[in-house]
């Protein structure tokens, strides 16, 4: 459902209609339903639709209507950091026990994420998996992300028969029926749940690594290239948990060679 807060349909707003009219000369209803249109309009017009959208269960209901019973939302976290694994989660929600407040994990406070994660463990089938730094370097970050997604799906207590994948690409080796959902963590409750589970579990990994390798600030930056992290790379050097093919780390390794 492409609607904003308080039941207001953002497709009916004047800025949206004007943007559609300018963006392409096509049927507005068809264009408005296109997830590519939403992504393009937000980037081109700066209208910020993701700020008014709230995730719902419409994608899951549509899959149920086509005969799929166990619909898993799948999302990953940790593509961009300079250190640590990439983590993915798969979550199958019970339509009658959906936690209140599910949203893109980036839009939630840490206490809210933790509360929702604990609730999800009680009422949903949740599976989290990682792809290691070694796998990221061997495969590349995209393929490693997809590997983590496949592992998360394989780890569900009862296999899913359909998957909603955040983003615009289905993992190459995925065998079950699936669809992609652009900005899915802000549109699908199952993908929102997966984004929360992946974020919580990757953060736990980085907190543990921060204790083993103090000084990089991983307990707060979670491996991303913050100022403290970059300064520590200069002063302390590279650890086995750094992604050596990522440019800032690679440059650090070979700057004197």
Automatic annotation (TrEMBL):
GO terms for molecular function: manganese ion binding; RNA binding; RNA-DNA hybrid ribonuclease activity. A divalent metal cation binds at residues 75-76, 166. Its cofactor is Mg(2+); Mn(2+). Endonuclease that specifically degrades the RNA of RNA-DNA hybrids. One of its GO terms (cellular component) is ribonuclease H2 complex. It is found in: Cytoplasm. PROSITE patterns: RNASE_H_2. Its EC number is 3.1.26.4. It comes from Sulfitobacter pontiacus. Keywords: Cytoplasm, Endonuclease, Hydrolase, Manganese, Metal-binding, Nuclease. Manganese or magnesium. Binds 1 divalent metal ion per monomer in the absence of substrate. May bind a second metal ion after substrate binding. GO terms for biological process: DNA replication, removal of RNA primer; mismatch repair. InterPro entries: RNase_HII, RNase_HII/HIII, RNase_HII/HIII_dom, RNaseH-like_sf, RNaseH_sf. Belongs to the RNase HII family. Its main location: cytoplasm. Residues 69-257 form the RNase H type-2 domain. The keyword NAD does not apply. It catalyses: Endonucleolytic cleavage to 5'-phosphomonoester. This is Ribonuclease HII.
């Amino acid at each position: 459902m492409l609607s904003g807060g308080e039941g207001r349909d953002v497709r009916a707003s004047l800025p949206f209609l004007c943007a559609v009219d300018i963006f392409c000369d096509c049927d507005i209803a068809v264009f408005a339903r296109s997830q590519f249109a939403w992504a393009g309009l937000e980037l081109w017009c700066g209208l910020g639709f993701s700020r008014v959208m709230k995730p719902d269960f419409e994608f899951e209901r549509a899959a149920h209507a086509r005969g799929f019973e166990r619909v898993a939302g799948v999302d990953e976290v940790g593509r961009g950091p300079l250190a640590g694994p990439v983590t993915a989660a798969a979550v199958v929600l019970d339509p009658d026990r959906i936690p209140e407040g599910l949203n893109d994990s980036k839009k939630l406070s840490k206490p809210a994420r933790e509360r929702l994660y604990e609730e999800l463990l009680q009422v949903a089938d949740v599976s989290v998996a990682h792809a290691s730094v070694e796998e990221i370097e061997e495969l590349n970050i995209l393929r490693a992300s997809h590997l983590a997604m496949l592992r998360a799906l394989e780890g569900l207590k009862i296999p899913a028969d359909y998957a909603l994948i955040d983003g615009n690409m289905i993992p190459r080796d995925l065998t079950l029926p699936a669809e992609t959902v652009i900005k899915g963590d802000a549109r699908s409750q199952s993908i929102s749940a997966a984004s929360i589970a992946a974020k919580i579990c990757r953060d736990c990994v980085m907190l543990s690594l921060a204790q083993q390798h103090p000084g990089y600030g991983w307990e707060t930056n979670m491996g991303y290239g913050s100022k403290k992290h970059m300064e520590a790379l200069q002063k302390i050097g590279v650890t086995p948990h750094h992604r050596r093919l990522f440019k800032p780390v690679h440059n650090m390794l070979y700057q004197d060679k």
